[in-house]
Amino acid sequence: MAKIISKRFILLASCLVAVLFAAALSTAPVFADTVYSGENIVSTTSSPTPAANAAAASFDAAASSIGTEGIITFEGDTLGSFSHLTVAPGVTINGTDLNGNNQTIRNTSNSPAFPTLDGFNTTSGGSYFVEIEAGTLTFSFATPTEFFGAYFTGIQTAFFADNITFSDGTTETIDVPGTGTSDSVGAVSFLGFTDPGKLITSVTINAGNVNTGADYIGVDDVRYQVPGVPGVPEPTSTALLLVGCAFILALAYRLRALPPVQA
Description:
Elements: E1 4-5, H1 7-27, E2 34-42, H2 50-64, E3 67-72, E4 80-81, E5 85-88, E6 91-94, E7 104-106, E8 129-133, E9 135-145, E10 147-155, E11 162-167, E12 171-175, E13 186-194, E14 200-209, E15 213-214, E16 216-230, H3 235-255, E17 261-262
């Protein structure tokens, strides 16, 4: 008995495959961390920082395709030293300096005569920031994040090793840029990373160490992933999905003109 194979069935199956393929391309994350960094030498706290700002803008655009970005400015937080402080829903910070003392939230530099060497606020219209008086500062996330970034001030990596560390399955260390700094010249840097598909529960900032010495730096305008809110798809992903849909519509239009054939 002859078996009827419908061209309509074949084309419908092709349409389904095209839909699934386009959807997979539009939603699948790229499993690789990408670093965004920029640095500007500054002479005053109001000196322009175009390179750091450009890095922050690139980071923000990439982060928004992964999830919704939150920014921690520390404005309104309690001034003074802290042990464990909640700075956003589900986000806490803690840390100690090289002498074991708690880190501090300030609204003026610890060294008013030399704030560009010591750390200061970077929030437009704000004044608060965290000053790391050497040692470490750790951000812990109740819901894991896939990206992290921040502004760093008072950077003097000519003498000290400032970096961030985190684990995405393996331990990662990224240096804070500070080219051209010295004992009398400081920098403002932005440093951030995106790591789609990875579950990062904490990020630690290290300001100097026992081998290189103690650096005093400021941290402000910290970026992290707000839990439970999807990101905006990349334009290329949306385009792929639209191409897939257009292909399906074209095939569906042809279905009406194709009679079944025997095999």
